[in-house]
User: What shape does this take?
Amino acid sequence: MRLQQFLARAGIASRRKAEDLIRAGRVTINEQVASIGAVVQPGDIVRLDGERVRMPQKKVVIALHKPKGYTTTHEDEHAEKIVYELVPKHPGLHAVGRLDKDTEGLLLLTNDGHLTQHLTHPRNQVPKLYRAWCKNGRVSEKACQQLVQGVVLGDGLAQALEAHPTRNGVKLVLTEGRKREVRRMLNKVGYPVERLVRLAMGPIELGELEAGEWRYLTPDEIKLLYTSAQLPRPKTQAQKPTPTPKAKTGTRPQKSTVESSSERLSTRQRQGTNRGSTDRQAHTRAGRTNKA
Assistant: This one.
């Protein structure tokens, strides 16, 4: 990965400040002063002011229900509220993709750069499920067909993997993550978005997390993420979340707080996920736990 990205994920500084450190000649790779654009390869030794910089050893993955009005960024002088105010601090923690300020729903955050790279790379086709409420109400079958066939945006053709009409809007699955892509696609077919919520990313669902609540993913869920991104499973347990009771036999998957169970999509890529999730704990910013 690029040097400034390496420094950011190691918790040294934001990418912008990392670039300043590099320009100042304070960063070396294998004892050579680094420059902007340098790439860190496996086995390289990176130092800042002579002190070795290491990527965090403890890997964590957090599922957050991002509320409307929060910006997915570490630093933005124009942002009133940022998502990192809502979750515990971990060195190198970053978002897996982004949700724009007005979009709500599931946002994954991790300090595992390897996982992030593969979850967000277009070739891995990791599906993301969205629920949109539109100004013109229920999206027609014809418009849904257009979304699946593809609509031309300013940055090229955009296609939904699936699109199904729902009350006052639509549910659709995308495998890309372009800026404001869902909003632009729906606007293109004549259905401007009033509200947009991401319900799932790969095998991980929003479930019953309330806006502003978060939880750590379990080791089994992290393995599912690796599988969905066509990655080898991690050799060691990624994290040790707060122990929770085992799910009872026959426990049903969580029902999302922003949809009814009858509205769920039967997407093949997401079958068999989130089993036993009713026993997991959700956390608020203050650390209070609630049954999820």
Observations:
- Residues 250 and 265 are 20 Å apart (CA to CA).
